[in-house]
Amino acid sequence: MAAVRTRIAFAFLVVGTLTVATGATRSQPAPADPALAARIAAADAAAGERLASQCTICHTLDAGGATLIGPNLYDIVGAPIARTAGYAYSPAMAALGAAGGTWTVELLDAFLASPAVTILGTRMGFAGLSGEADRANLIAWLRTQSAAPVALAGAPIVDATAPVYEAYQADRGRNYYGDNCGLCHGPTGGGDTAPALKGPAFQASWNGRTVWELFNYTRRFMPADAPGGLEDERIARILAYILQLNGYEAGPLPFRVDRASLEQLRFRF
Ligand code: HEC
Ligand code: HEC
User: Fold this and answer.
1) Suppose 165 and one of 2, 68, 118, 240 were both cysteines; which one would form an S-S bond, judging by CB atoms 3.0 to 4.6 Å apart?
2) pLDDT tens digits, residue range 51-69?
């Protein structure tokens, strides 16, 4: 027993330097390590998805997926450590879970680099991913495997094909757009007395900026003849329509009026 206790204590020590977050918050600060924050901000989730094939021998990644050799990993970023009831975690992993630890980006990055060194006594028999960019890409993709991806300040950031709104929102948005915006911006966003809300000039003006900025701009200044008069949900649907006009595809995740998550969505045209 003494030996086990020492190993658990050591796991805390090692992980303690990586700031194990406690509590149930689903929104995490930017990684304290600026280099890691930068890697996450530049990550390529599609490349991360390809790397996940190294995990699926032992883990399912879909919602409600079965336990294999390891526990299911759906919605793991920001989740409590050792959350799967009935799974026989190693004492080291179970102890971190019992202490209220969560899978922060920092901890995931360190764990995936070297599971055995980061959590001494883990049963995860995986050598580790040595490439820093590979780990950032994988974490970025794991984060998207969630009905409500955890907000990560300084994190990416979806590209133009990522699902950020549901089709019905864009459908309704088309009508709201027609009623409130089309008069000045043209019936399908091509521009009239006011600039186009699709196409090269619009995309050049918003490329690299966040969806939050567009939301906030619209909420404060539009419609120009009656600014501030639209409910947030209507603006969200109008923006879903504008995203669609600019080549973003609908997906399973709704466009949510939530500053933290909208700040994670950066336009990449
Ligand atoms: C050879 C099998 C194996 C492979 C490959 C593997 N894992 Fe694991 N993983 C496990 C086992 C077993 C556990 C439980 C570890 C423990 O209890 O100490 C685990 C646990 C985890 C946990 C903790 C889950 C929780 O509920 O807290 C994460 C996160 C994780 N693995 C991520 C990954 C990722 C990402 C990959 C791919 C890069 C991967 N694993 C590859 C076997 C594996
Ligand atoms: C009465 C006319 C009018 C209406 C109605 C109107 N707008 Fe505008 N909008 C403008 C004008 C004029 C500008 C340019 C403002 C400037 O350059 O300072 C503009 C600019 C914008 C921009 C910035 C475009 C860019 O290229 O950066 C967005 C986004 C926008 N409007 C969205 C909307 C939305 C969404 C609605 C409907 C809810 C709407 N507008 C309704 C007149 C209008």
Assistant:
1) 240
2) 999 999 999 999 999 999 9
Domains and CATH numbers, the chain: 2-152 (1.10.760.10), 167-262 (1.10.760.10)
Cα first-last separation, the chain: 57
Give the total residue count for the chain. Answer: 269
Q: Containing H/E element for 244?
A: helix 232-245
> Coil, helix or strand for 1?
coil
Interval between CA 13 and ligand 1 midpoint (Å)? 20
- 193 three-class SS: coil
> Cβ contacts of residue 236 below 8 Å, gap of 6+?
165, 169, 173, 215, 255, 256, 257
Dump pLDDT digits (tens) for 201-217. Answer: 898 888 778 888 899 99
